[in-house]
Amino acid sequence: MQKIESKGINFYYGETQALHNVSLSMKENSVTALIGPSGCGKSTYLRLLNRMNDLIDNTKMTGSILIDGQDIYEKNTNVDDLRKNVGMVFQKPNPFPKSIFENVAYGLKVNGITDKKTIEERVITSIEQVALWGEVKDKLKKSAFELSGGQQQRLCIARALAIQPSILLMDEPTSALDPISTSKIEELIYELKKQYTIVIVTHNMQQAGRVSDTTAFFYMGELIEYDKTKTIFTKPSQKQTEDYITGRFG
Amino acid sequence: MTKEIHLAKQKRRNQKIAFGLFQFTSYAVVGLLFVILAFIVIKGIGVISWEFISEMPKEGMTKGGIFPAIVGTLCLVFGSMIFAFPVGVLAAIYMNEYVKDGWMKKIIKQMTNNLAGVPSIVFGLFGMALFVNKLEFGDSLLAGSLTLGLLVLPVVIRTTEESLKSVDDTFRQASLGLGASKWQTTSKVVFPIAFPNIITGLILSIGRVSGETAPILFTVAAYFLPKLPTSIFDQAMALPYHLYVISTSGTNIEASREMAYGTALILIIIVLISNLLANALRKYFGKKVKMN
Amino acid sequence: MLSSAATSITVVLIVFFLFIEGAGVFSKKPIEEGFLLAVHASNPINKLEPSQVKDIFDQKITNWKQLGGKNEPIVLFRTEDITEFYSEEELGENFEYFPAKIDEYVSKTPGVIAFFSDKYKAKDFHGKELEINKIKIFEFLSGEEWFPTAQPIAQMGVKALIYGTLWVSFGAILLALPIGLAAAIYLSEIAKKRTRNILKPLIELLAGIPSVVYGFFGLVVIVPLIQSVFGLPVGETGLAGSIVLAIMALPTIITISEDAMRTTPRAMKEASLALGASHWQTIYKVVIPYSASGITAGAILGIGRAIGETMAVLMVTGNAAIMPHTLLAPLRTIPATIAAELGEAANGGLHYQSLFALGCILFLITFCINMLVELVTNRGSHKKH
Fold first, then answer.
1. Residues in chain B closer than 8 A to A112 (CB atoms)
2. C91: alpha, beta or left, given left = phi > 0 and alpha = psi -120 to 50?
3. Closest Cα to residue C283, out of C294, C269, C270?
4. Whole-angstrom Cα distance, residue C321 to residue C314?
5. Cross-chain residue pair C212–B33, CB shorter than 8 Å
6. What is the CA radius of gyration of chain C?
7. Which GO terms of the molecular function aspect are on file (chain C) (predicted)?
């Protein structure tokens, strides 16, 4: 069974259609990269997977998305629980104006975990998972804003991991970072793949090539091609994909 | 597992209660507006007639009309605007187009803010000390207009500044690039574009001035004066003061209640019209400017 | 150039005139002009504090011993008391013998303290005129009695008025803050854009209604309501003032806190939601803390407005200048006092000046509040960058 399965997705912002009949499935413990030029719908698609687009007024979706065989747009889906299971990391690091510890503990607390010991354990494990422990263990009480951009982004990943999701959505997670921080995050993605299903939107072709198992190419709201990353980058079947990958547009 | 389901349910219930409460509160606040308006409209509408707005008060202000109060308020609005509008607009132009960012601008800004925060009764005290006594204008339209003018000065300055700021810098650069001087650019390009919004500020100030009572208590307002002012050194009646007087200290409060409802309604109509007009203008011109 | 300085000049002028006139209170004798206080020539007391004079005439002090003088009971004497000692003929048809008789009475009464007009002071007056100390700033601020036209000595304690002002204002904020916050949250976070676009201008319209109309509404609706609900003898109470002020402060609080909440970055809210927090949890754990400085500024500004508001309060609070003990009784605020009394105070007189001194206090309070708002907003924006 596929971990994520979407069928015939159409999505509208008001009158404008942003996604046309997109069907896409992802295997468990794999990394899928979504690539394409700006405004192609890749981020919109990503944000459908944890229903983040619900927040935008005047939008409409048709089609269905199943996670673990459950339709997440069904009427009695609990959105909060869905988002707990589908973690998200954003384009720019967006820690809360709280301490490092509180940032990671936030998700646990809002999900009703009150036991201090459990919280502490999980916070530490998550920070260790993102290889940040050594850098922050002495300043857990300090504001998260004191960290560098790359550290902040890893903290945000730790924050997402703390509530133990099974899927991790990443929306251009390294676009605001320097090359060194970027490579650290990429290594991390490789590690995390063992436990999580990861979907990553990226502008950076090399990155997609390095971290993903499968790649989906979006263009003008349509899914043009979806295949093994190796295939997409070496012998794409579509002309548009080839043009994009070789840098002729986008 | 059941514990988690229970928790999720609780989370959703809390949210439902909280949001319901917030929604109710918001509508209640708006409802309050309508209650106040409706109350005064229903009670006051029957009082209003041609006689009411065109005649002098009679029989200890329990009968007749409020003509002199309307005229007085119009005079005060006119007088204060003649003073505050040019001064405020020039001040804002100077501040926005000529003064560079720095400590001086900061101080002027801060002072404008401070002036806006001064309670209106303090303006009344000040107007009495300076205009009525020191400059010996006496209780007069002149003293009252100047006091009210100072009161709305910050409003005029702020709205003008905002409208000047909203003028795109490319207009300025284009004009300067064509060899126009700074003053030509300001007067021929920036000012005309900003003008509609500046007018919005003027209308808002008119609404504010016509409703203020405390500043005119000791500078111009007459308790009962069944004639129209003939010079700027005359005392005058004014709508808000008239409402205060006949609802609290008239010769016969019960008998003049009707008059009070009518006066309140006229006052509200003036203020609401100026507010709505300003809003409508802002929307209308806002669209037009964006299209450019 | 000059016009841009207009506001600064005005502020300076306001400060100048307010403080010049207000300072007069402390440089003048608190006894009505043209009147004097005199004692028997043998009385060792030369000088009295205003509060001592008051206590003497209130008969709280009844013996000169209490003031460090001889053991002699105090005998009060006012001009009109003279008729008790002398017949009309003795005083003369046109009171022409008043000075002589007063002099005679004072000379023969060792314990006397006499209060009378200058024009009745005999040329060869045998009594001793008392010096009265000026009112001190501390007395002015801490005195609980406001009775500026009292005789023989004016009572100028503003404590009751300051307390009255604060009570009404804080009562108003207590009512307005929760309501205002709830509405701000709804408008900025929950309501659809269309709903918001309709509701917000309507709420702002509340700010446009003149305060005298609020006062009138309070007078004819809220005052009778309070009277009947609480079964009070009068409905003009501090509570009525608080309610009216709360309605007036609502638009300020709602507009400013809503603006502050809307500056919460979308990324913060999405981060919270993506962690499985509910919308409500996101609001109270992320949005409110993030906009706390803006909300505080709104609340402080609301208090500032309430403190300075005159007409509405004047019309509904009953204006009794007593120390407030409950919001269910009449009380009196500083602005209302100025508005109610300035019309009756003689220009340049002590009463007139004392009202300007009240104006100074009011100005200082609101000035501090403005500065506080500035501080809070600046600190808030520093934190975020």
1. 4, 7, 11
2. alpha
3. C269
4. 12
5. no
6. 29
7. phosphate transmembrane transporter activity
Residues of A in contact with C274 (CB under 8 A): 50, 52, 83, 87-88, 90, 160
| Chain A contact set for C267 (CB, 8 A) | 90, 92, 94
Closest CB to C276 among A96, A107, A156: A107
Mean pLDDT (whole number) for B235-240: 87
C-alpha dihedral (B132, B136, B142, B143), degrees to nearest 10: -20
The whole-angstrom separation of Cα C273 and Cα A94 is 13
One-letter amino acid of C195 = T
DSSP 8-state assignment for residue A85: H
CA angle B260-B266-B272, nearest 5°?
130
Q: How far is C23 from chain B (nearest CA, A)?
A: 14
pLDDT value at residue B290: 44
Measured between CB atoms, does C163 come within 8 Å of chain B? no
Domains of chain C: 35-131 (3.40.190.10), 159-384 (1.10.3720.10)
B257 in C contact zone (CB under 8 Å): yes
Residue A22 one-letter amino acid: V
Q: Which of C129, C165, C141 is nearest to C46 (CA)?
A: C129
- Structure letter (DSSP) for residue A248: S
Q: How does strand A167-171 pair with strand A197-201?
A: parallel
Whether the Cβ atoms of residue A67 and residue A4 lie closer than 8 Å to each other: yes
Cα A246 to its chain centre, rounded Å, is 25
Q: Check residue C380 and give its pLDDT.
A: 66
> In sequence order, which residues have a C-beta less than 8 Å from that of residue C227 and are 6 or more positions away?
C233, C234, C235
The pLDDT, as a whole number, for residue C382 is 52
pLDDT of residue B2: 60
Residues (pLDDT < 70) of chain C are: 1-2, 380-385
Count of residues for chain B?
292
The predicted model gives B9-23 an average pLDDT of 87
A99 CA: distance to closest CA in chain C (Å): 13
The per-residue DSSP string of C153-198 comes to B-EE--HHHHHHHHHHHHHHHHHHHHHHHHHHHIIIIIS-HHHHHH
Q: How far is A228 from chain C (nearest CA, A)?
A: 28
Q: What is the mean pLDDT of chain B?
A: 85
- Tell me what the mean pLDDT of segment B11-28 comes to: 90
Mutation site for C-interface testing, chosen from B26, B27, B156 by largest number of C Cβ within 10 Å: B26
B268 contacts in C (CB within 8 Å)?
Answer: 209-210, 213
- Is there a cis peptide before residue B86, judged by omega within 30 degrees of 0? no
Residue C71 contacts B where some CB pair is shorter than 8 Å:
no
Question: Could you give the CA distance from residue B62 to residue A180 in angstroms, rounded to a whole number?
Answer: 85
* Ranges A79-88, B62-71, C28-37: which has the least confidence: C28-37
Chains in contact with B, where contact requires at least 3 CB pairs less than 8 Å apart: A, C
Single pTM value for the model: 0.85
Q: Which of C11, C17, C343 sits opposite B130 (nearest CB)?
A: C17
Query: How far does Cα A33 stand from its chain's mean position?
Result: 10
Contact C208 B117 (CB under 8 A): no
Q: What pLDDT is recorded for position B26? A: 94
What average pLDDT score do residues B1-5 get?
61
pLDDT of residue C381: 60
Pick from C4, C221, C278: which is nearest to B91 by CB? C4
Test mutation, B4, B7, B11, B22, chain C, max C CBs within 10 A = B22
